Amino acid sequence: MRLAGKVAVVTGGASGIGLATVRRFLDEGAAVVVADFNEANGLRTVQEVTDNGQGDCISFIKTDVAQESDIIAMIENACSKFGRLDVVFNNAGVGGAVGPLTEITTEAWDYTFDVLAKGVFLGMKHAARVMIARNEGGSIINTSSIAALSGDAAPAIYSAAKAAVLNLTKSAAIDLAPHRIRVNCVCPGFIVTPLADGGKTEATIEQAKTTQPWPDHGQPEHVAATTLFLASDDAEFMTGESIVVDGGLVAAGPEMSKRFPKTLGRNPPLTGLTKGTTGEPPEIRRLDDDR
After folding, report:
1. Could you say which of 89, 158, 190, 260 is catalytic?
2. Is 1 part of a structural domain of the chain?
3. 10-residue block means of pLDDT along the chain (291 residues)?
């Protein structure tokens, strides 16, 4: 098993890509701390794992990744319950601010960057402190997005935050390399998750199939497989890298921008804030309703 004897933390681990990764890590021998803001989803995940006979290998802690005290508690949970820390997957995400720049509030900007960028920074900071103290290396994986690679694949503030994650990954990889701590990121494309589909799974699958060149829609398990590789010793000479998992969407080049008319809040014109699977309702309004 590729992660036998290792301990991993997965933020946003109770749904979507995070949950799929938790399952893969467990199946490959790791003990896993599930960190998620949605407590109901987190407890459900623990129950599922326990029912599968792996209850001794999992822990849940409610975590707001934008709060440093929560990140510290999350890392301490892993160390106190399982005795070590080898892998951290900074994956928690939200849709964040939606709409044209002229309509986005500073509060929506701050919320988006707090979760998507600051949350990753805090996760790396406190994971690295523990890994450096142990002096046994480690692997940190961050979730960026193909939105980091284009100005037209997602709402502007989301794209900016994900670009920050991509470049922070590179800088952290250089900083932590002397300690044998690898830092990489995954850049998912159109993956059908609760965050992406808003409860309209079938419609999202059909949109996904027509979005990228590959004929099948992206699933959380596709990203989880890549994350497992980066967490394992198979990737021991990889650091500072970003791996795109998108069914060929980025390879489509300029054509990519034509495939996302609805995700940008342009058709229909929208503005506001979506908090994804946190359990909090979105705060979205149509701009044409203001006329």
Report:
1. 158
2. no
3. 98 97 99 98 98 97 98 99 99 92 93 98 99 98 95 87 98 99 97 63 67 86 99 99 94 68 55 70 62 46
